[in-house]
Amino acid sequence: MEPDPLSLRRILLATDFSRGAGRAKDYALFLAQTYGATVLVQHVSQPYPTLSADAVADPYLLEPIREQVSRVLHELTEQMGQTGVQATGQHTVGIASEEIIRTARENGIDLIVMGTQGRTGLDHVLLGSTAERVVKGAPCPVVTVRPPAAGREQDTVSVQRLLAPLDFSDSSFDALETALLLARRFAAPITLLHVLEWSWLRLNFTVAELAEDAQVRRDIEARAGRYADLLRAQGVTVETVIRGGGGPADFIVDTAEAQRSDLIVMGTHGRRGLQRALIGSVAESVLRRAPCPVWTVKQAKFSPGHRRVFGPIEQAA
């Protein structure tokens, strides 16, 4: 059998053993079973704000933590093993985001899966201090998974509809290539979303300006349509949505809710190449509010020899 171009052989599940991390475990297990990947389950003991790093690293204080973490990691990896997934556990001490990124680099990880709500129950505690930094610094794509809504804890993980925001940047092409491979694997349709930038939406409504805005929209619709045609040529069902008049994160979340998307696949920096601009103002907001997991692509990883479909339209056409 030809290897899957997405090249998911090693998955890192970063967990703090919270309810949110439990759903991330389900997602990592689902992907590992689908792609035949191994899973490295990592827990990071991070210094408490009131203690110095040296105090936490003291063997006297650390030994009870090691014993408890070792026991829970063993239970998790045993559970995964019973489903046929090869899993190992790893406990490290330090700053969570730094340890997760270092582990991913040292172990040649293809995908990081992590929750977006920690044991404190506050989204921002994990997103602000860990998940955002992991997304920004990871050497591979990252899937962030929110806890299930009340009453839906037993819902099975599935990928039946994908949402792919497209702003025509290199990062969004990497994400769209990933979305294509996922769509083919799961026989899932894709909603291709482009949000018009504020700079294109005028406040002065002269006839000439309205005509220019209308032409810009037609040009974008035509360009997005060409990418949609490339998806259809790959056997993928696709719907193109052009939105404008609001913030990109709002439209991404709203579209995901309206389409009942199972997964959002998006890049981590936009057309201007300013990574922080998207991480701070769009991606972070989407990660916090998305009704489904978010697969962020900073550095796409595909199998050697994979012939890409997506790039600038003059290259892809």
UniProtKB/TrEMBL annotation:
Gene3D superfamilies: 3.40.50.12370, HUPs. It holds the Pfam family Usp. Coiled coil: none annotated. Residues 9-146, 160-298 form the UspA domain. It comes from the Bacteria. InterPro entries: Rossmann-like_a/b/a_fold (IPR014729), Universal_stress_UspA (IPR006015), UspA (IPR006016). CDD domains: USP-like. Belongs to the universal stress protein A family. This is Universal stress protein. It comes from Nitrospira moscoviensis.
